[in-house]
Structure formats: structure tokens, C-alpha cells
């Protein structure tokens, strides 16, 4: 392998390791904040429909994932009219309903009207979204809104999340930019995923190919495995 390529990979790895040590989740799938008017507001940062891969959760069949995560805003985004929540608020997630075939699962399968208590900011929570027996390619949606128990913020409007089951979420581990090749460019995409994924996981579908060992977390082991594949100049088999 050319020395320049080795140096490029080593430098990228060093950056990735540093970031993994000082990681702070600045990106989430669903971000909860307030509008300039003080109302609760949601910014959905993932592309929809959100792909649900085959379930890895014991007792949950079909397609399922604990992503996207749901978190309080960590920075003001004035261009999105999204601002930090008041520290005195107490946020509740309210499940309105879902299309037949889509469900939320925690210790049980949710029914419309069930709630999840996020509490005051800052928070970062995950629910399991599940399509037990769906058709690949079809879109299933659920609806929710937010309420502040303390009345600091007015209730949010109703928001919708859409999902679709897929047969696999990553055809080639390490091909983080999805160009069907393993190159140095994959390291940059890997670093982006490393920064946006909580250290304990779960890994968002968009970052599935960065999870080299498939353990639903991004850590030093994934960095080592990716570097090994890049240095070995492995290829993605068709």
C-alpha cells in the first residue's frame, strides 16, 4: 500500500480515537425544543421513511430498532425556530396512534394514549419501533405530540414519524458512504457517525455500516476493524 494512503488512514484513525474519547451527542433523530413563541416544537433530523432492519431484540419479531433517538435540543437553532427548552419544564411524550402493523414496544406493546416521561432537560431517550409482519417497501406511520407537565411551554402540534421494513440495513460493513467500495473516504463518514452516536448506542440506521462488529454501539473495536479492512484493501462483494 502506498505510504501516502497509510498516513491518510493513520491520521484519520487518530482523529476518530480522539473524538471517541471526547464524544458528545450533538445530533439525534428527533430533537425537542421550543419555538420563539415558547411552544414545544420537534425537529426531525432523519430522512423518512426511517428504515427498520430485522429485529435484534429478544421477544420482538419482524423489523425493529431503537432509533431514531429522542432528545432535548442542545443548541439554539434560530434558522429552524428551535431553541433550548426551559430548565423548569417537565416533558411528556404522548403516543396518539399508528397505522396498522406499526407499534411502539417498551416492556409491552403500547396502545394509543400511552405516555413516556422524559422529564426536564437535558434528556436522551429511546423507544423501540416495531413492524412485526410488514411488507418490505410499504410505509407505516405513527403520530405523537408533546406536553409540559409544568406548563412552561404550550403543547406541541401532532407530529408524524414514518417507517419502512428492510431486509438488511448494511450490505458491506465499513462502506460508510454507501459507494460499494472500501476507501479512505469511508473514514470521514465513520467519524461523522462516531460524533453523532451516543457512546452506549444505539446506532442509527444511517450509521449501520460503521458498526463493524454489529453490537449496536460505536467504539474502539469498530475503529480497529474498519482500519484493518482499509489497510487490507478489502472489497465489497456483490
What does this structure look like?
- The chain has helices at 3-21, 185-196, 220-231; strands at 30-34, 40-44, 50-52, 63-65, 70-72, 91-98, 103-105, 115-119, 124-125, 128-131, 140-148, 159-165.
- The chain is an alpha+beta fold and 238 residues long.
- The chain folds into 2 domains: 3-24 and 170-231, no CATH class; 30-165.
- The strands form 3 sheets. The protein has a 5-stranded mixed beta sheet with strand order 3-12-11-6-8, with no helix packed on it.
Radius of gyration from the alpha-carbon trace, in angstroms: 19 Å
Number of domains: 2
Shape: globular
Mean pLDDT: 85
Helix content: 10-25%
In order across it, which strands form the biggest sheet? 3-12-11-6-8
